[in-house]
Write a structure and sequence with these properties.
22-stranded antiparallel barrel, about 750 residues, mainly beta, globular, six-stranded mixed sheet, 38 strands, 4 helices, Maltoporin, Chain A, about 65% strand
Length: about 750
């Protein structure tokens, strides 16, 4: 047995033993006397798993020792918007026109659903899911810039956790919404019903959107001395759209005062379609036209997601003692079909066609056990997690002028099976009345097997990584505190990035994976100053990240001006900056939220040397109460320059403006303008010794929405509250276990 496997086995055994001993203690510990109800006090106490709530009129915000929590219920356009719209309102988070999510400009970020990974949010699925998911299904967004040991070490950019809405009030409660806009409409119904020991919740949503867009690209082929060999210019425009149907349902059942069973199922079906026309012209070094053609393209990208979550929650005899077992199973299937017809006028008049058909089946299963218990005034959390991925990706392409026959060099079937076994422990301890420290250690073993079916090539990867984390809070006063944090993170290559087969993209581009990729490692540091007052709160945070074995893209030309793009490890990077967020009630009618950060990034790669970039990111969100029945809400964000390893992406920004009118106590009318300044445009530059390119993509101009939301039902009598509080983790449930 290799040393890495021995280390993995030993480490996991030690931490698993700790978990089992602690769990056994939960069953045998003598019942503790329940503490008296605490008196109301102005003093703030910091706990890892009990949120410290910051209340600002018009916006609910919670900060915990290891994360920031942002409430989505106050967003006037939440019901008619998408998950992308919701995330763009969260400080530090941006989603571009392609659905790419970034946290402080870093796209190596993980997106969880209810605290766990999901096949829906992995690989190529994520962008489509973010753009299609209803924002009204999201209750809150948790942002962890430096996630602790209870979370997977994957994601050097941090973790964004989408907490889904359940509406579990005692009695019956629900809402219905419908919205119509320029070439789009959506609607949905959500509700819950709680009686006795049972709570039911569910929802159904449908969305149909279409729009137009433009693309431009300039691609320059250089020789080894940097001289221009050829230049290709492309200008295109087209239409695109998507439909999305989502269904979810859940049940919670209180077996007794100490045990609760929960089940949640989701189903999601979506399809993206597009049609476009473009004109391409290629010029030689002297500027003479050597090739000219028009391209007509169409594509279809269907997909579906299913998930099942089963949870057992147990409350121990000690105050704050909990044991939780959780099983999540999700599956995502989909495919794509691209057809291109090229009509050449130079060098000769001719017509060619090419097609690409791909399919994917991604299965993900996560099993975890988390145990949380007090140790005097301290808090211990331990847990294990096993994550299994079993995926297949197939690509079939004809290539240019192949008369409908598959090109074996451009077609492949790639399979990978990945198991990540992890165990963690965290310990929180107060030091005097001012300090609270939370330390943690996570051990993860990865076992990955891949198979390239075409060639029968198999690869196996096995390694163990240890990820420490530390959080500390110092109370300066009843309203001010300092925060410190450190975490070690990994960015594992997407298994598809290990696929050595060449994948056809279009007539000018192909891609290829690299089976020798290693994980990128990041050490992340952060210090913050927070002030919380009745009408205003603000945070100032400084952060620094050091990355090694950075995964970057590399490009080179093949014959016929075809560009091959792959990935490689190489070099290192650093990133540091200062982030400021201010939230408050400026006047009795105006609530304002402002945020931004100034950052500097330095990236060094073997092929391109050192790149440096200074960027400024900003965000503004305000709510103005015009009358007791009329509200105006607006938000705008701007993301700064981002390095890519071979170049950079230009700054860009977007925004929404929403007017809400309360027609009755239960009915609200909304009017929304999306991207009112028409700034939804992304531009990317690539600049190496042999390749230079400029690519831009802009979406449809401002979009108008008119929506209506109606709520129905109401809470049950007050005596029904007791059972419900146990279901929601209230009194009698104790703090959440560390695993979420």
């Amino acid at each position: 047995m290799s040393s890495s496997k021995r280390l993995a086995g030993t480490s996991l055994s030690v931490l698993a033993s700790l978990l089992l001993v602690s769990a056994a203690a939960a069953q045998t510990a003598a019942p503790a006397e329940k503490p008296a109800e605490p008196k109301t006090t102005e003093k703030t106490t910091e706990k890892a798993d009990e949120p410290t709530t910051i209340t600002v009129t018009g916006a609910k915000s919670q900060n915990r020792i290891d994360r920031q929590v942002y409430d989505n219920s106050k967003n006037a356009d939440a019901a008619i918007g998408t998950a992308a719209d919701t995330l763009n309102k969260v400080p530090g988070v941006t989603v571009d026109a392609n659905g790419n999510v970034a946290l402080r400009g870093n796209t190596n970020v993980q997106v969880y659903i209810d605290g766990k990974p999901s096949a829906m949010m992995q690989g190529d699925n994520r962008a489509g899911a973010i753009q299609a998911m209803s924002g009204g299904d999201i209750s809150s967004v948790e942002v962890m810039n430096n996630p602790g040991a209870q979370f997977s070490s994957e994601g050097t950019g941090g973790i964004i956790n989408l907490v889904m809405r359940k509406n579990r009030r005692p009695g019956g409660f629900g809402s219905a919404n419908v919205a119509v806009g320029d070439g789009r409409y959506n609607g949905g119904v959500n509700g819950s019903y709680t009686v006795g020991k049972i709570s039911l919740n569910g929802g159904i949503n449908y969305r149909d959107e279409s729009g137009t867009g433009r693309t431009t690209r300039r691609l320059i082929n250089r020789d080894a001395n940097g001289n221009v060999v050829s230049r290709t210019d492309t200008n295109g425009e087209g239409t695109g759209g998507f439909t999305n149907f989502a269904l979810n349902g859940g049940i919670d059942y209180n077996l007794d005062d100490a045990n609760t069973l929960s089940a949640q199922v989701t189903y999601n079906k979506r399809e993206f379609t597009s049609e476009g026309t473009s004109l391409s012209a290629t010029y030689d070094a002297l500027g003479a036209t050597t090739q000219r053609y028009t391209n007509q393209s169409r594509s279809k990208n269907p997909g579906s997601d299913q998930s099942l979550a089963l949870t057992w929650s147990h409350t121990g005899n000690l105050p704050g003692e909990t044991l939780k077992a959780d099983l999540r199973i999700s599956r995502s299937t989909g495919g794509s079909e691209f057809v291109n017809i090229n009509n050449f006028t130079l060098p000769t008049v001719s017509t060619t066609s090419d097609t690409k058909v791909s399919s994917r089946a991604l299965s993900n299963a996560v099993f975890s056990i988390d145990y949380n218990r007090p140790v005097g005034t301290d808090q211990l959390t331990t847990g294990i997690q096993i994550t299994r991925d079993d995926n297949t990706v197939r690509n079939e392409s004809t290539g240019i002028g192949a008369d409908g026959l598959n090109n074996a060099l451009l077609s492949s079937s790639f399979q990978y099976k990945q198991t990540i076994s992890a165990a963690y422990a965290t310990y929180q301890k107060p030091f005097g009345e001012k300090w609270v420290v939370l330390g943690g250690l996570r051990v993860e073993n990865l076992d990955l097997d891949t198979l390239l079916v075409n060639t029968g090539t198999r690869t196996s990867i096995n390694y163990t990584k240890v990820s420490p984390s530390v959080f500390a809070t110092y109370l300066l006063s009843d309203t001010a505190k300092l925060r410190f944090s450190y975490a070690r993170r990994l960015q594992r290559p997407n298994p598809q990035a290990l696929n050595a087969a060449i994948t056809y993209v279009d007539a000018q581009n192909v891609s290829q994976g690299n089976p020798d990729l290693k994980p990128q490692e990041t050490d992340s540091f952060e210090v913050g100053y927070e002030v919380t007052k009745p009408k205003i709160n603000y945070q100032i945070r400084g952060y620094y990240r050091e990355n090694n074995d950075v995964i970057t893209q590399t490009s080179r030309f093949l014959t016929g001006n075809v560009l091959l793009t792959t990935q490689e490890n190489g070099g290192s990077s650093t990133a540091g900056g200062v982030e400021v967020n201010v939230n408050g009630q400026v006047t009795p009618k105006l609530n304002l939220s402002l945020g931004g950060d100034v950052a500097r990034t330095e990236l060094t790669t073997p092929a391109n040397g050192t790149q440096e970039a200074d960027s400024v990111n900003g965000r503004m969100n305000f709510t103005y109460t015009l009358t007791p029945k009329d509200t105006l809400q607006a938000f705008f964000f701007a993301r700064g320059k981002t390095l890519t390893g071979q170049g950079y992406t230009e700054p860009f920004g977007m925004g929404n403006i929403t007017y809400a009118r309360k027609l009755t106590p239960k009915a609200t009318l909304t009017v929304t303008v999306r991207d009112p300044l028409n700034t939804g445009k992304s531009v990317t530059y690539t600049d190496t010794k042999t390749v230079y390119s400029e690519s831009s993509r802009s979406q449809q101009a401002s979009v108008f929405y008119v929506g209506l939301r109606y709520t129905f039902g109401g809470p049950a009598p007050a005596n029904a509250q007791q059972n419900q509080m146990r279901m929601m983790g209230g009194p009698g449930m104790g703090p959440r276990p560390g695993g979420m």
